[in-house]
Structure formats: structure tokens, C-alpha cells
Design brief:
6-stranded mixed beta sheet; single chain; 7 helices; alpha+beta; tt1808, chain A; about 20% strand
Amino acid sequence: MNLDPLRKGLLKVGFREDRLCNDLPIPGSNARVHLLAFADQQFDSRTASVAVLGRERVMESDIAAVRSLGAPLVFACLPDHYQIWLQGRERPRLRLRLSPRELPGFFEQEREQLAPEAIYRAKIWGRLESGFQLDFVDAGFFPLIEEEAGQKLTDLVERVVAETLRD
């Protein structure tokens, strides 16, 4: 399994090398994610942007297991192609299959949507302001992650933003 093309693609769209973490455990599972890209220094579910799994075969349940990390976009690195999965409120969905030759062009074509700042804005603000929504981020995904983790931060952010937007 060669993760180098994915790592290069993530760097090309703006992720920093020091925000790409290798071989992390998936909470509540014996499995591990091979690469997790964060939009910002605080490495948590708010800034987790892209997860990468490398396996012989990937099933929907494998992608669903990664959702607790908070990354709305999951790349599956398979022996002869890549799959791009989107985490959703109800379940993950397969968005795209790419050959190794198509992968660099995908990163180039989707550069703006895959930028770490764009994914972060879509996760945090996409529910409140449609202008921040992206094809790669389900607007309801992040609040669900926060709810599942038992955190109350989402309600606080929504109240503050709503008040700010009203003024």
C-alpha cells in the first residue's frame, strides 16, 4: 500500500506536513487510520479533515468506524484504485473511484474544496451559512460527531454565530 500519492496530494492542496499524522487508533475499534490530516494545530474532531485507510478491501462499515475521528472525507487506498467516501449524518457514501493516474488530477481540480481551511469552514460554519458548504462535507456531519462525543461545544458556537449574524 503506497500512501505517498495521497500525502503528496494533501500537501499540494495546502495541508502542512506537521498536520499529517500517521497510524492513529480509531476510538472504539481495534483498527487504525493510516493517515489523518488536520486543518489546524489543535488536533481534534473539529480540525480533523481527511482520513486515509489502506487495505485490501474497504467496506462501508470500515468507513463508518472512522467517523468518530471527525474527518468528513475518507480516502480508501486499495491495491488498484482509490475510493473517496463522504461521512454523513446517517451513513457514509461512496462518492468517487479513481485510478492511480487520475489521483493527481483530482487534487488539482478540487484544490479549493480540499484546502484545509475550506473543509474546516464547511464543518464549523456550513450549517449556519450556506456559502461555506462544500460538496465534500455533509452539513450535518460535524454536529452529529459532537453529539456522539457528548460535547456541548456545538450549541455554544451556534448561539454565538447566530447572535453575531443578527447584529
